[in-house]
Amino acid sequence: MIKEKFDAIVVGAGMSGNAAAYTMASHGLNVLQLERGEYPGSKNVQGAIMYANMLEKIIPDFRDDAPLERHLVEQRLWVMDDTSHTGIHYRSDDFNEAKPNRYTIIRAQFDKWFSRKVREAGATVLCETTVTELVRDGKDKVVGVRTDRAGGEIFADVVVLAEGVCGLLGTRARLRQMPRPKSVALAVKEMHFLPEEVIEQRFSLKAGEGCVIEAVGTISRSMAGLGFLYTNKESISLGIGCLVSDFASMMESPYVVLDTLKNHPSIRPLIAGSEVKEYAAHLIPEGGYKAIPQLFGDGWVVVGDAAQLNNAVHREGSNLAMTSGRIAAEAIVQVKSRKRPMTKQNLALYKTMLDKSFVIKDLKKYKDMPALLHTNSRNFFTTYPQLMSQAAQTFMRVDGTPKIDKEKATTTAFIKARSRWGLLGDVVRLAFAWR
Amino acid sequence: MTIAGSRIEEKLYQNRYLVDSGRPHIKVRPHQKPSANLLALTRVCPAQCYELTDEGQVEITADGCMECGTCRILCEASGEIEWNYPRGGFGVLFKFG
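YS: structure for the whole thing
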């Protein structure tokens, strides 16, 4: 079907693939991007918060025409039990700046925009094309791809695997292992549509301002998980993600967990009267630094979710995806400009550059966090949230009980639930994993 | 706590799909007795594509599949399921994503 040989083939048109294709095409490389969906974004799911800084490094003037929903002025972090939430809210007028820092986006719309930029930069984008296999030469170097379209193989100097968290190509070609159930979360979410002004009233927002809620607690039913609510212009993204290993061992139905969250007394009034227009599910890499696979080889690099580049603690993924795509592309451009072949040795430049970026530095900082939260999920996602809720209620409720007795009751409840050593151990382990 | 009236069909009805008729992208291999992970799919699959038959075997109807890959993560390595992406253009088509 396609006779010419490309400088690079990018598999996938998500955040990392678009960043890579755009960067390489902007530097004059002959790029082919393949996407299995009907349009870019049709297979992609995200919460979604987009961080401006990382996109500015790729498309500085993106605010001129990118489909952005709301810029965030408030973040609420909640710890929930079955009837209550305890929260830390941070809201600042400083976030109402000329170039806001964080936006909510709707991926299907955002990805179409990003893909248009990729095409304008000169790349060829071919949708409705599933890449089925990598093509290798006699020396095992990746030299191209096979697709499900008639006509067979397409060749390139380098293949950028931006195939997403469940990427089949790299795992089937044994370039990396398939993610294990305990290093991926399954997230389900719904799009709840409400009039713009209703959203603004419910969250005390001015036009264009946005608010997000992220919550842990009994909503995840002792599984390691996180609930989220993001305000878009005229919709609310509401969802919850928990580890696949926990879903399997506890035999929970994701949509029932989501419906329970929707019916929580702290959430229900926020989405009351909404019209649901979509239900989506997607995996999220949660393994952190220790789950990062080999990132490059002869004729290939892997970027984004496929490379497990996701910061679960800070709930950042798409910015790591964009940045890894951009950096991989810059490394490829450098190798190309020196007229060197796309060998493993030369493509190691990508890893060197990525190691110096916030992507690897952040993941390294939290390298012990997944193991801590995932092995003690009951303590962190049920016991402590319940204790915190009880403590807050005991503190708030005025009923004639002497305050000294209330404090004793709270202390006793914590010690009874986790023991003195257990509490101390949790604090120490959390502190070590955080530093 | 379970939610009364929570039905997966109502959720999937909101979604857009282009089903590749007669060419399911996921298949369950014939088995005598499902493993714990395969059995878990009857609960864990977010589109509830997997069902336990009266004979005690697990079956799949992939039409409502959102291609999340959970079943692949849990059951591909053991060989109990065969997992591929749908042909280009087919499968779930997220309007919002």
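YS: worth flagging: Chain A has three domains: 6-69+107-179+291-366, 182-285, 370-434.
IM: good catch. Also DSSP finds 15 helices and 17 strands in chain A.
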